[in-house]
Design goal:
single chain; about 900 residues; alpha/beta; 7-stranded parallel sheet; about 15% strand; disordered C terminus; binds iron/sulfur cluster
Length: about 900
């Protein structure tokens, strides 16, 4: 017998709190209540809520628990997309969205009813596994378990285990190398016409680009010099299809794979969706187009099994069950930006979600019972046979640099303006407590409290070590040597001045130096200081730590050599599984030895000559006053050097494209930012202007009378602008503290006017989901920092105003100071700011019909930087009142025509300060 419905529901926003009673007639039972009453009611009886952490935050009662609809949705429809709001959930379930905040409370009840009714629907597609999972959830005290259990029929004959329901991948022979074929530019254009079905005249820039990109696929002319094309294609050209057209032709003619690489997950998703134009049949599409990401994005089935079998407790165990439900229906097991709802991990305050991925590189490969069903291995194998692999810059670079897989021969880098940053992270070296303890764990396994079935290298190679004496000796020596690295509790020991072992002793010295020399840039956050003029103690501790690291390099090298010998002259007992496990260990050893070599080189420099290619510094990483890591950092002064040497040079054909590839500068700037400057042959250049009439569609307003360093004035300006635009505003900040200060002052006021305000670093929701909510509600506004400047693709009405609080100057870090000095001083800063302004402006107009205003709340905006904006855009310096009037005018007319005198225009900038 099912429990009676409806249940009481609680809806809380910045505008108010509403409760819908359990028993009243629809609508009649809705009451607006105060915080105190809402907390008391929720503590007394579990209420239906949507996003309990968010509701808890609104009530000022973080312990709030209730019947969270998001958890129920994730259980009933795993791997299905829904915007996590009352309106979004209603739409996802075919219900009428609520018309007001007050009506959201009964809407939550209707959503609950619809979801629970699904459980008895014979056509429910995600039934398999639900009964078993609910049994486990009931034992964990999951709030919904009883209501679900009462409606879920026990399946006849039991259910298959999750792990046996997942498909297995098949091993196949290596694909032959691609044939040397060229793509005729006119064939590329024909293919494009076929994909777009559009008239060619209307898409001149796109057709020209398809023809130009064909050159990338010609056979390579000279060693270490690929056919490299730099293409700046303005927003709206349709560059995705312009490069996919020649790429798909080449892939099928040459029998090769083209890697398309992006920086943001949003573009990766968009590209995956474009695949439908190339291959209409979903099965063929799945075979020919494969999405790849770094290992740390995917669910590790071994970790999941551990979690399901008791390694996780409390709320984390509930999350593991919901992730288990999802795993059975997921397209590819991608937990970060794939089909796992981005909001799911944040309901559990991140507990456990990261522990389910393979973040630490602890994979045991063929030693894993789920190896043949592993999502990571499946994606890797599928990509070998695919026409197109959609990856990200980091993965392409790591694979090429570490030679982990067969290196891609044709690479199309979209969002090419991020190549510099991606290379900067990929080729960075960090030697600190966190990294060192990971190395130790990889070799000896988890110490102290048991952490599931993870094993260190020693346990994984036990059979080889007992068979081959030399391997055994090398392994023992490595275990002995790695004990010189930090162990659990190292951070506390550093704080207490009681480091243990040579590496902790060095880190204690690093920490002392940082605290002595650095200036706190933001109270409670990271501290750093240049690695220059080290004192005697730091030099001697470095020498001792270096010796300890060298003591580890030797046995690891000996072990790798012996393992290779064992594979060559394999004993009878070494079956295919054991062989693959040994191969996995050799790969892991190669990677760790490279890491160790980087650390040794870094420590060797302390007290010696600085290497002009690198920037080195010492840092204490802190968040809100809590120390997370102490480390020595090394970055390339110009990371495009290793990018050119390890990734671009060895490829046969490379495209780097972006709407802002030159970042507001000349082609030299694009060459410097992509690595083209380090190749022997010049890169080809292509340019197509955006088809948008930016002058008609947009304008830039620089507000002259908002006082800097006055949070109240800044907040007032934001509120008035958002009210004038009636929402649809993206607010960009250069500091989290100012973002929070503005949000706390205006969120309630705006909400009462029916204008919801979302904020990164405030709302307990991931950035991707915040953008989904923003896109879904044209009256919503969103405040955020760096990531939103570039990763937001919100075409249409939902985004009509961008407000930047300050000129986005680079943060004055050690690394920035070095690059600034090498890059021409203030000219370098100007290039960085122009690129950032161009990226931020790029959020505003995404398609021909879009209209919008870009506001900068800083009179200090130098006119020389205004060249960042597209030609023809009206740029005016105005007081706030006038800016508000212009925004209102834009909204009332839908077309920006400008109501006053333009003070500066992009093609004729005039300084009017
Ligand atoms: S093969 Fe590795 S990543 Fe895959 S499930 Fe097993 S341990 Fe996890």
């Amino acid at each position: 017998m099912a429990d009676p419905l409806p249940l009481p529901a609680l809806h809380a926003t910045h505008a108010g709190i509403w409760i819908a009673a359990a028993d009243g007639p629809e609508g009649a039972g809705i009451r607006e209540v105060g915080r105190g009453e809402a907390i008391a009611r929720a503590a007394e009886t579990p209420h239906v809520v949507l996003n309990a952490p968010l509701v808890g935050q609104r009530l000022g009662y973080p312990e709030l628990s209730g019947l969270d609809l998001l958890e129920l949705f994730a259980f009933i429809h795993p791997a299905r997309f829904a915007v996590p709001t009352a309106a979004g959930m209603s739409r996802a379930l075919g219900l009428e969205p609520p018309a007001s905040e007050a009506e959201s409370a009964p809407a939550l009840q209707r959503i609950a009813e619809r979801l629970l009714a699904t459980l008895s629907d014979p056509d429910w597609a995600e039934r398999e596994g639900a009964w078993t999972s609910n049994q486990s959830l009931a034992r964990m005290g999951w709030g919904w378990a009883q209501l679900v259990g009462a409606r879920l029929a026990r399946p006849d004959g039991g259910e298959r285990m999750l792990f046996s329901r997942l498909p297995q991948w098949e091993e196949s022979a290596d694909r032959p190398p691609p044939r040397a074929v060229s793509i005729d530019p006119s064939d590329a254009q024909d293919k494009l016409d076929q994909l777009t079905g559009a008239h060619s005249e209307a898409r001149g820039g796109q057709r020209a680009m398809a023809a130009a990109v064909a050159s990338v696929f010609a056979p390579k002319r000279q060693k270490d010099c690929p056919n490299l094309l730099l293409a700046e294609a303005g927003t709206g050209i349709g560059k995705t299809l312009a490069y996919l057209a020649p790429a798909s032709l080449w892939a099928s003619a040459a029998g090769g794979t083209v890697w398309v690489s992006t920086f943001t997950k949003a573009l990766q998703r968009q590209l995956d969706a474009e695949g439908a134009r190339l291959f209409a049949d979903p099965q063929e599409r799945a075979r020919r187009i494969v999405v790849r990401k770094g290992r740390e994005n995917y669910l590790c089935l071994l970790n999941l099994e551990d979690a399901l079998q008791g390694a996780f407790a409390g709320r984390a165990a509930v999350l593991a069950q919901l992730v288990g439900r999802w795993a059975a229906y997921s397209k590819d097991g991608d937990m970060v930006g794939g089909d796992l709802p981005g909001w799911l991990p944040s309901l559990f305050r991140r507990a456990g979600a990261t522990a389910l991925t393979d973040r630490r590189g602890e994979c045991v490969y063929a030693g894993c019972p789920h190896y043949r069903r592993c999502f990571i291995e499946r994606a890797e194998r599928a990509s070998r046979e695919a026409d197109l692999v959609i990856a990200n810059h980091a993965l392409v670079m790591v694979n090429a640099a570490r030679a982990r897989e067969r290196a891609p021969t044709r690479i199309l880098f979209d969002e090419g303006h991020h190549l510099f940053d991606a290379a900067d992270s990929t080729f960075a070296i960090t030697f600190g407590g966190q990294e060192a303890i990971e190395m130790r764990r990889w070799i000896v396994g988890p110490e102290g409290r048991s952490r599931g079935r993870r094993r260190g290298l020693a346990a994984r190679l036990m059979d080889v070590a007992s068979y081959d004496e030399e391997s055994g000796r090398a392994l023992e020596a490595a275990i002995e040597a790695v004990r010189a690295l930090p162990s659990d509790g190292w951070g506390q020991r550093l704080v207490e001045g009681a480091p243990f072992g040579p590496v902790e002793a060095l880190l204690a010295e690093v920490r002392g130096t940082v605290y002595a020399r650095s200036k706190a840039q933001e109270a409670g956050y990271g501290l750093e200081t240049e690695l220059a003029e080290p004192d005697g103690a730091l030099v001697s501790r470095s020498a001792e730590a270096m010796q300890a690291l060298e003591g580890l390099v030797k046995p690891l090298a000996a072990l790798a050599r012996r393992l290779e010998a064992v594979l060559e002259d394999a004993p009878d007992w070494l079956d295919a599984q054991a062989r693959a496990r040994v191969e996995g260990a050799i790969n892991g050893l190669t990677w760790r030895r490279e890491t160790l070599a980087g650390w040794v080189a870094l420590l060797g420099r302390i007290g010696g000559e600085a290497d002009p290619d690198f920037v080195d510094w010492l840092a204490v990483e802190r968040v809100e006053g809590r120390e997370l890591d102490v480390a020595i950092h090394r970055r390339w002064l110009d990371p495009t050097k290793p990018l050119a040497a390890a990734v671009i040079g060895p490829a046969d054909g490379v495209l780097a494209t972006s709407a802002t590839l030159r970042g507001g500068g000349g082609w030299e700037s694009a060459e410097a930012r992509t690595g083209a400057a380090h190749l022997a042959l010049p890169a080809g250049r292509f340019e197509a202007e955006s088809p948008f009439d930016y002058g008609q569609a947009s304008e830039v307003l620089i507000v002259t009378d908002v006082r800097q360093n006055d949070p109240a004035a800044l907040a007032g300006a934001y509120a008035r602008l958002i009210e004038a635009a009636e929402g649809g505003t993206l607010g960009l900040f250069t500091a989290i503290q100012r973002l929070r200060a503005v949000h706390s002052r205006i969120a309630d006021r705006l909400a009462r006017a029916g204008l919801p305000l979302l904020a990164q670093h405030v709302d307990p929701i991931d950035a991707g989901t915040l953008v989904d909510i923003f896109r879904d509600d044209p009256r919503a506004s969103l405040l955020g920092t760096d990531a939103l400047r570039d990763g937001v693709d919100v075409p249409g009405e939902s985004l009509r105003l961008v407000v930047m609080e300050r000129v986005p100057w680079p943060r004055p870090t050690v690394l920035h100071a070095a690059r600034r000095m090498a890059g021409g001083g203030s000219g370098y800063d100007d290039r960085v700011v122009r690129a950032r302004l161009a990226q931020a402006f790029g959020r505003l107009i995404r398609r021909t019909s879009d209209r919008g205003v870009f506001v900068i709340l800083s009179a200090a905006m130098p006119s020389r930087l205004l060249s960042a904006f597209p030609a023809g855009v009206r740029i005016s310096r105005v007081p706030l009142d006038q800016a508000i009037a212009r925004v209102e005018e834009m909204l009332s007319r839908s077309v920006v025509q400008g109501g006053g005198e333009p003070i500066a225009k992009r093609d004729q900038p005039v300084d009017v300060d």
